[in-house]
What we know:
The complex is a heterodimer of chains A (396) and B (151). Chain A has helices at 22-37, 63-71, 87-100, 133-141, 145-160, 164-178, 192-197, 225-231, 270-283, 300-309, 317-323, 340-344, 348-363; strands at residues 4-15, 47-50, 78-81, 106-113, 200-202, 205-206, 215-224, 236-245, 259-260, 292-295, 377-384, 388-395. Chain A has 2 domains: 4-118 and 215-238, 3-Layer(aba) Sandwich (Peroxisomal Thiolase, Chain A, domain 1); 133-211 and 239-395, Thiolase/Chalcone synthase (Peroxisomal Thiolase, Chain A, domain 1, 3-Layer(aba) Sandwich). In chain A, helix 5 (145-160) crosses helix 10 (300-309), helix 6 (164-178) packs across helix 10 and helix 10 (300-309) packs across helix 11. In chain A, a hairpin with a 2-residue loop joins strand 5 and strand 6. With 396 residues, chain A is α/β, with parallel strands linked by helices. At the A-B interface, helix 4, helix 5, strand 5 and strand 9 of A face strand 4, strand 6, strand 7 and strand 8 of B.
Amino acid sequence: xxxxxxxxxxxxxxxxxxxxxxxxxxxxxxxxxxxxAGVGWRDLEGLVAASSRFEGGMGWGLHANEVMxxxxxxxxxAINVGGGCAAGGIAVxxxxxxxxxxxxxxxxxxxxxxxxxxxxxxPPGIPDDITDTDFLRWVAVGATNPAYWAxxxxxxxHDFGTTAETFAMASVLMHQNAVGNPLxxxxxxxxxxxxxxxxxxxxPLHLLEICAVSDGAAAVVLGSEAQARRLGGPLVxxxxxxxxxxxxxDPAVRIPTVSMNADTSVQHTSEVGGAVSAALAAAGMxxxxxxxxxxxxxxxxxxxxxxxxxxxxxxGQADWMIEHGELGIEGKLPINPSGGFLSFGEATTAQxxxxxxxxxxxxxQQAQGRQVPxxxxxxxxxxxxxxxxxxxxxxx
Amino acid sequence: MxxxxxxxxxxxxxxxxxxRVTADGAALVGTRCTGCGTxxxxxxxxCRNPRCEAKAVExxxxxxxxxxxxxxxxxxxxxxxFRTDSWAPYAIGLxxxxxxxxxxxxxxxxxxxxxxxxxxxxxxxxVLYRDDQGRDVVTYAYAPPAGxxxx
Lengths: 396, 151
Ligand SMILES: [Zn+2]
């Protein structure tokens, strides 16, 4: 296996774009990434797309094919990957593996999404019976996604004494970070009082402590060391990347299940934890080598719990860290300098690609308005439906 | 425990094979692996334990009682797939069962302010709505024990 480098990154801002087809968002993000890399469409020896189930892809998730047929019919291979909201991370990992194996010199990974309004509907053709837990969680329990995160948050309050104010501080931090990021959808700073006065959605979580859904698109161009040196940009290496699925006994309250075989000796959210561990191992690094995290913060609970679950902090330590500013951009372990899902809203399959774009800007010292001082190593972590996890480690 | 207030109203479950009412009260319908003993809810096709080679499951009743592991009060009405005649913010619990499972369920029969982690709970049947044939559509839920729940 040979080293893999980030040649270019690009993203469309996050928001709601009812007048822009998803294909347009995809093309704009990919065009920006190609321009950033300094390559042309004909240089792409492959395109890996994170497949959406909401729009586009000819109804079959053929997103990479659709993009190539729209803008560059080069004959290069199209690879379409699933994995729910982790699909973006899986796409980057797949593209990196194709460079590492020697199959491609230059390849792009892409995620683009336009989210449906309101609650995400069940896919068509699924039977209304006990074989579909996504049916059961609605008809038998009425459990919304925030209810799952709230169950984790309530238990954390019991286990570690986390307070409503500390959860609110996690939301305040994400919104503060986003003030400096032109790609973020919500860029207004807020206070702990603002968060606690926003409507309760699923106790103890308030509206400002759960992520919205957004439209957005992001793309990365990866290549060999020879290509990176030829193009002459700042060298950012994909030091490691990995994908994983959930492990038996994982105690996480996993959407959309209605029961779990909880074994406290098994890692919580093991699909992501497994990917993080494997990506770090591939990079020959440990958690202490990582300067910043870009991770899925679907709720304020995630901001505190994930760095602990994946070994970056001790259990319960995130409360002290956030209360003392140590998870901020100038802190010991900056979390989501981009502003995270809480400030972007989740554009599901695009999110894992955007994380890698943000890490690249950070490691190039180009993250104007939100730069982590001296960032050299960054790690992404993303979770997808069906117990999918993905993680990418970048090194400057 | 289910209390049938109106004996002439027929009750139908919100989904077949999810729970049943026996002479001993309500029970969840699940499976147990005959090889490693792991329980599953709802019924599973196989055993998910990667260390188990048997992969043979049989149907069992489970979840008659448990303890509250965590809970939330859902303040917004869920989408229409969740049908209920009397909407008000309600509690959802994660209930730890002696069979080694944690189960997501509506919590009933308790003031929201009285909920506390580790409280003992018993399985109940809860009426969601009356359907267009005049039948009560019911789901499984957990409630404090009828005797007051000293434990
Ligand atoms: Zn077994």
